[in-house]
Amino acid sequence: MAKFGCSMLLSIAERARLLAKSVMMLLMKYLIALLVVVIISLAGALAYFVGRNSGQPAISQQASTTSAVRSKPVEIVTTPSPIVDSTKLITGGGILSFPRYEVMIPADWTFSRESQTTDDEKITISGDIFTITILQGGFGGSICLFPGDPDLEGPSGRYDYYQEITTNSNDRFRRVWNSGPFTGYSLCQLTQYGWNAPTLYGHISIEASQVPTSQQTVILDGVLASFTKK
């Protein structure tokens, strides 16, 4: 009887061991399957995010470049520089309430100075096709009007075209002219009262023997931009 009981216990233990082994093997299968699913999911997610991020920089860079181009101020008027090999400096002014000034001209241009009295001065600069006259003395002024400006009472001059120039002293000129037969330019300056002539340097006019080329106007505007108060 004791022997039979021992055999029964051994059989039950063996069955329990086999059952536990089967359960462990089943759990291992499910665990391995779960790990495979997790690994595949992680790999897919990683590939998705890598692909998404790799495409974003080009779009961002293009957008920022476009934004920079759109937001960049458009510089309509620039201060020109003379296209010449060498220059020379001339000085003038200081008549009545006008300031003394200096201006740079190409070395092969000429200039002359004349005065009728101590209260006037005329400097004439000649070069290429241009003759620039700078006159200081006692004379009145006028308002410069441009397309779109209303008519005003008092002395004024209306002009069809202009080229804006900023001088070395940060003064703003407009070289102005009209349509029709071309003879040259006048010069207006921006003051607290608007665009006026003469300028604060005096009455400045430019005669031209013919219609200038673009390079000739660049040289001319370089001379005008070199005006500096002393």
What percentage of amino acids are in beta strands? Answer: 25-35%
Spans with pLDDT under 50 lasting ≥5 residues? 1-6, 48-79
Largest sheet: 10 strands, mixed
Shape: rod-shaped
Report the C-alpha radius of gyration, rounded.
Answer: 44 Å
> What is the helix content?
25-40%
Head-to-tail CA distance between termini: 134 Å
The SSE string, one letter per element, is HEEEEEEEEEEEEHE
Q: What does the oligomeric state look like here?
A: single chain
Which structural class best describes the helix and strand composition? alpha+beta
Q: Count the DSSP helices.
A: 2
Q: Tell me, rounded to a whole number, the average pLDDT.
A: 78
* Count of domains: 2
Number of strands: 13
Brief write-up:
The chain contains two helices and 13 strands. With 230 residues, it is of the alpha+beta class. The protein has two domains: 72 residues; 143 residues, no CATH class.
List keywords for this structure.
alpha+beta, 230 residues, 2 domains
Characterize the structure shown.
With 230 residues, the protein is of the alpha+beta class. It folds into two domains: 1-72; 87-229, no CATH class. The protein has helices at residues 2-71, 214-225; strands at residues 87-93, 100-106, 110-114, 121-127, 130-136, 142-145, 156-158, 161-166, 172-177, 184-191, 194-197, 203-208, 228-229. Strands 3, 4, 5, 6, 7, 8, 9, 10, 11 and 12 form a ten-stranded mixed beta sheet that branches. Strands 1-2-13 form a three-stranded antiparallel beta sheet. The model is unreliable at 1-6 and 48-79 (pLDDT under 50).
